[in-house]
Amino acid sequence: MNKVFDHYARYYDLLYQDKDYAAEAAYVASHIQKCNPSAQTILELGCGTGAHAEFLARLGFSVIGVDMSQTMLEQAETRKAGLPIEIAEKLTFIQGDVRSIRTGEYYDAVISLFHVMSYQISNSDLEDAFATAATHLNPGGVFLFDFWYGPAVLSQKPETRERELENEKIKISRIAEPEMFLSENKINVNYRFLIEELATGKITKMSEKHCMRYLFKPELELFMKHAGFQPVSFVEWMTNTPMTSDGWSSFSVAKWVA
Questions:
Q1: Which residues, other chains included, contact 126 with Cβ-Cβ below 8 Å and sequence gap of 6+?
Q2: Does the model's pTM come out above 0.90?
Q3: Secondary structure string (H, E, C) spanning the chain
Q4: Sheet containing strand 161-166, strands side by side
Q5: What is the Cα–Cα distance from 251 to 258, expressed in whole angstroms?
Q6: Per-block average pLDDT, block size 10, for the chain (258 residues)?
């Protein structure tokens, strides 16, 4: 993913303030506990500002969060510093690439959320990310991740979207303009931001390109098998219903059996 989020990590939590991280963490935890009721440790690949990690820690898990973006990790550390000590001590954040990080430790579960796996746009990227998960799991451990579901993307097609948000300090206008590359199963989402500091009226403009891959169940099963995983489930994210062409966001659980 390079350091694609570095430019606007400062604004990330505002942009996704309506995202229910507590409910999502509880959802992921329920799948972990279904596979392994005694699970206690989690490695999170692509932890961002640490919101999912925080709520998983509140549920009793110890979480190691990995992210490439130093500015994201700074936000995660700020979040951690504001938590009660009994929660904060369950959290560790480190810089690393989900394709190559090796912590030297083993975990009961590896998770990768908010479509981090769809940022792995080449076959080698995906192979490496699955290998990272496999390398860090205890015997019988599980890898849980969400992703852009190909049939839904192709059915609905991406469209330009605009958003405006503000808090007591800043106002943000964001435009997301997609470009589809059908032969590569890829979408480039071109973001343009206009950020106004309310106290001074200062305006900042910036742009970022996020390259995303939409994925299909058969290809994911092949990547899983190659890395030593056995598929457990493929469902629509947050509903546990079958994947359909109506829902972009899907969720998979794979058990490490190699």
A1: 117, 120, 213, 223
A2: yes
A3: CCCCCHHHHHHHHHHCCCCCHHHHHHHHHHHHHHHCCCCCEEEEECCCCCHHHHHHHHCCCEEEEEECCHHHHHHHHHHHHCCCHHHHCCEEEEECCCCCCCCCCCEEEEEECCCHHHHCCCHHHHHHHHHHHHHCEEEEEEEEEEEEEHHHHHHHCCCCEEEEEECCCEEEEEEEEEEEEHHHCEEEEEEEEEEEECCCCCEEEEEEEEEEECECHHHHHHHHHHHCEEEEEEEECCCCCCCCCCCCEEEEEEEECC
A4: 161-166, 170-181, 186-197, 203-213
A5: 22
A6: 56 80 98 97 97 98 96 95 98 98 98 97 98 97 98 96 89 94 97 91 92 98 98 98 97 95
Q: Can you read off the two tokens belonging to residue 117? A: 């796996």
Instruction: Name residue 150's amino acid.
Output: G
